[in-house]
Amino acid sequence: MRDLHITEVQQEVLVGCLSFVSLLGSLAGGRTADALGRKRTIGLAAAVFQAGALVMTLAPSFRVLIAGRLLAGIGIGFGVMIAPVYIAEISPAASRGSFTSFPEIFINLGILLGYISNYVFSGLPDHLGWRVMLAVGIVPSVSIVFALLVIPESPRWLVVQGRAAEAREVLLRVTDGEEEADERLAEIEAAAASAASSGETVWRELSRPSPTIRRMLVTGLGIQCFQQITGIDALVYYSPTIFRDAGVTTESQLLLATVAVGFFKTAFIALAIVLIDRVGRKPLLYVSTVGMTTCLVVLAATLWLLAHGAVPKALGVAVAVLAVCGDVAFFSVGIGPVCWVTSSEIFPLRLRSQAAALGAAVNRVTSGTVAMSFLSVSRGMTVAGAFSAFAAISALSVVFVHRFVPETKGKTLEEIELLFGGGEGESASPGEVELGDSEHLVRKG
C-alpha cells in the first residue's frame, strides 16, 4: 500500500479498526439471528463482507480504504458470532466440538493464503499487488451463496418460532434416526418452553444475571477476552515487525517467515478438530495456555538477548521464529477454537445468540486494542517488553481455565446448562455452587 503513503499510525488504525467495528456486527448479529434466523444471518454476513472487500480493492485513498475496512468489519462481526452458534445448534453432541471448530480452521486458512498471496504478488507494482490480494479474498465468500441453498435452518430456532414440524425434519437429517430426533426435539421444546415462560427480556437477564447465568458469563466472556489479550493478533498482524526486530532483514525472508507462521496456525487447528471431541475441551485448553506462556517467555527473552548482543544473531533469529510459530501452534490447538466452541454451547437457548454476540464483541474489543496499540507499546517498552506482558497475561489464562471452565465434551446443549447449576440448581444461592477444575459442579459442604 505504499502508493497510498500510509503512515505507521494509519497502519495501526487500519489493522485495529476492523476488530472494533466488527463488535458492532457481533452485537447486531445476536438480535438479527433471533429475528431472521441463523441461516439468513450467515447470508447477510457474507454480503456485507463482500461489499466491504470490493470497496477496499477499488479504494483510491486511505479514507475510502478505511470505509471499506469498516464495512468488511461489520460483516466479519456478524460471521464470527453466527457461525459457531449455528453449527453448535445443528450438530450432534458427540461431534459438536469438531464441527464448531471448522470456522476457525477456515479463518486460519484464509490468513495463510493471505500470507502466501502477499509473497506471490510482492513482485507486482505497488499500486496493483495489494489490490489483487484483496480482490482474491472476495472469491471464497461467494461460495456461501451456494452453501445457503443446501444447509438447513437451526432446529432450535425453528422450535422457538413455533415451527416444530420443520425442526423435526432437520433433526432427522442430522441424527441417527427417528427415535433420537424425537428425543432431541423434546429436549429443545422443553428448553424453548422454559424460555417462553420467563418474563425477563434477554438483555435484562444478561445485565442482571442469576447466579447460574453469571457463572456462564464469567466463563464465556472470560475465555473470549483471554483468547485475544494473550497477544495472538500482535503475532499474526505484526509478525514481519517482530522478525525484523529479531534481525531478519530481507523482504523475501520476512515473507517466508510469515508464511511459516500461517502454516503452523492452520496445521494445528486441524489437529484440534481431530482431538476436541476425543480428549475434551479442558485438556486442550491446559496444553494451549501453558504452551503459549512458555513460548511467549522464550520469545521475550530471545528478543531481549538479541537487543543486548548476548546471543549470536543467527541463533537468536532461529529461536525467535520457532517461538512465534510455537505460540500460534499452541493457540490453534486449544484456546483458538475452544473459545468459540465454549461460547456457543454453554448458554441456554433463550440467551444463546445474544450472549454469544456479547462474547464476540468482547473478543473484538480486546483484539482491536491489541492490534491498534502494539506498535506504539513496543516502541515505548520494546518488543521484548511487550511480549513479557503478554506472557504474564497468558500465565493468568492458565489459572482462569483451571478455575472457571468446565468440561462439556459429549453433552447436549440442554445438559450443559446443568453444569452451571441450571434447572433445579437455578435456585441455589451464589455461594452454594462453584466451578472447580472437575468436569462437574461441586456442592460445598
From TrEMBL:
Keywords attached to this entry: Membrane, Sugar transport, Symport, Transmembrane, Transmembrane helix, Transport
Domain Major facilitator superfamily (MFS) profile: residue ranges: 1-409
Cited PROSITE patterns: MFS, SUGAR_TRANSPORT_1, SUGAR_TRANSPORT_2
Top-level division of the source organism's lineage: Eukaryota
Primary location: membrane
Compartment annotation: Membrane
GO annotations of cellular component type: membrane
Region (Disordered): 423-445
InterPro entries: MFS_dom, MFS_sugar_transport-like, MFS_trans_sf, Myo-inositol_Transporter, Sugar/inositol_transpt, Sugar_transporter_CS
Membrane spanning stretches: 13-30, 42-60, 66-87, 99-116, 128-151, 254-276, 283-307, 319-343, 355-375, 381-401
Any GO MF annotation of the entry: symporter activity
Its membrane topology: Multi-pass membrane protein
Pfam family, one: Sugar_tr
PANTHER family linked to this entry: PROTON MYO-INOSITOL COTRANSPORTER (PTHR48020), SUGAR TRANSPORTER (PTHR48020:SF49)
Family from the record: Belongs to the major facilitator superfamily. Sugar transporter (TC 2.A.1.1) family.
Record's protein name: Major facilitator superfamily (MFS) profile domain-containing protein
Source organism of the structure: Aegilops tauschii subsp. strangulata
